[in-house]
Amino acid sequence: MALQNCEPQDHNERAENVIINGKANPSNAVQADAVALGTIAADMAPVVDGFSVDDDELDLDFPTEGFSSIPEAIEDIRQGKYVIVVDDEDRENEGDLIMAASKVTPEAMAFIVRHGTGIVCVSMKEEDLERLQLPLMVTTKENEEKLRTAFTVSVDAKEGTTTGVSANDRANTILALASPNSKPEDFNRPGHIFPLKYREGGVLKRAGHTEASVDLAMLAGLPPVAVLCEIVDDDDGSMALLPKLQQFAKRENLKIISIADLIRYRRKRDRLVECVCVTPLQLQWGSFKSYCYRSLIDGMEHIAMVKGDVGDGQDILVRVHSECLTGDIFGSARCDCGNQLALAMTMIEKTGRGVVVYLRGHEGRGIGLGHKLRAYNLQDDGRDTVEANLELGLPADSREYGIGAQILRDLGVRTMRLMTNNPAKYTGLKGYGLSVLGRVPLLTPITNENRRYMETKRLKMGHVYGSRSSDHASGSGLAGAGERAEQDQNDSAGVQDQTPEA
């Protein structure tokens, strides 16, 4: 994965005295011992609080249990075989038979029709649909289909077909759609094959079968045109769900993959960001170099604050911070986000080098500002932060960290000490050529306003406070964490000399 690297011009020296509005800047109310405790934890063993550097059970190269790997599916697509692609439980939770359109045969079409709904679709890129003058069946505004699938007018090939409905006729129509030499006048409209408009960016933009099918064809090095048909349950004719799909895959010796695994595969291997600007900034914590990155998927801009020379890429103190407007900017007492950001910046300034990646679009753990404020109303009525999201019909946490991982890679980071209380961030950063040497806890104040929020994150989302996984979000728990971290430091021979300046 070759990313554009924005080379820094001159690394800034550490600021000795920071004056904001004519007076010394306060420490943003972080705990007095938080920086010291964090740097102690940073030099403890590589496995801290369940962050195991040897545990690859969630590595991106490993498929979800019960599924085939993406490389296996790509190879079958390349060979002209079909694969089963399973949707998400939040969508249809159904499976489609998918194959490359350029490889279709009458025999393959007969198999697809026999085990599918009979509605055979062909997903195609917009430029090919425009070349063949195949407009959408209804406009985007008029589209009332549940998942907004973009159907075009249906077609039959004029040559090599009779009624258009036989396996041979459908195969000929599909091959004509896949041919770069076909012209608009080669097709009758309407017909028995239903082209679908692929959304550029594929499953990284829309997690649907339309996008998954074209992505697989392109990953196999074939034309970006694919056949897909929903699989039915042989017993009652309903849509086949995962247990039946797995039985079918085993019986027919087919690979079965999930769209979620395909998304992870692409996020790991595709270039997701580009660096657009670098500039020095004097912040309240000191002098930093700011790097602006733009997502190539959705155009969202993110920022990385870099302190000192991180060019060797080794043992870098890192914070990947999710945007929180209410906490980071307005100092909301409901969460600890603003305090965590301030503490991370303070620790990096004191250490002399490190990186804070600020990811936008993560508001409310990915649900957006408006939904987050609605969730606050539900929390005031007694729900916790997880229950409120779920009651709104939203995930408890929909964030992903592939963008952050690629930004770190582009900056040259290879091994890091990760400042976080959230094990999901370790998992989310794995598989991008990054190694997490250890976790640096961010021990920010527990208040009456945020105590329940932080305890819910510990109980329901696996967050860890302090130096042991059993620590809980209370004053005594944090105090005990500090005492244990100091004891761990005393027990770790040879570690003290490596502790960075705190």
Automatic annotation (TrEMBL):
This is GTP cyclohydrolase II. It catalyses: GTP + 4 H2O = 2,5-diamino-6-hydroxy-4-(5-phosphoribosylamino)-pyrimidine + formate + 2 phosphate + 3 H(+). It holds the Pfam family DHBP_synthase. InterPro entries: DHBP_synth_RibB-like_a/b_dom (IPR017945), DHBP_synthase_RibB (IPR000422), GTP_cyclohydro_II (IPR032677), RibA (IPR000926), RibA-like_sf (IPR036144), Riboflavin_synth_RibBA (IPR016299). Residues 465-502 are annotated as: Disordered. It comes from the Eukaryota. Keywords: Chloroplast, GTP-binding, Hydrolase, Metal-binding, Nucleotide-binding, Plastid, Riboflavin biosynthesis, Transit peptide, Zinc. Gene3D superfamilies: DHBP synthase, GTP cyclohydrolase II. In the C-terminal section; belongs to the GTP cyclohydrolase II family. PANTHER family: BIFUNCTIONAL RIBOFLAVIN BIOSYNTHESIS PROTEIN RIBA 1, CHLOROPLASTIC-RELATED, GTP CYCLOHYDROLASE II-RELATED. GO terms for biological process: riboflavin biosynthetic process. SUPFAM superfamilies: RibA-like (SSF142695), YrdC/RibB (SSF55821). Its EC number is 3.5.4.25.
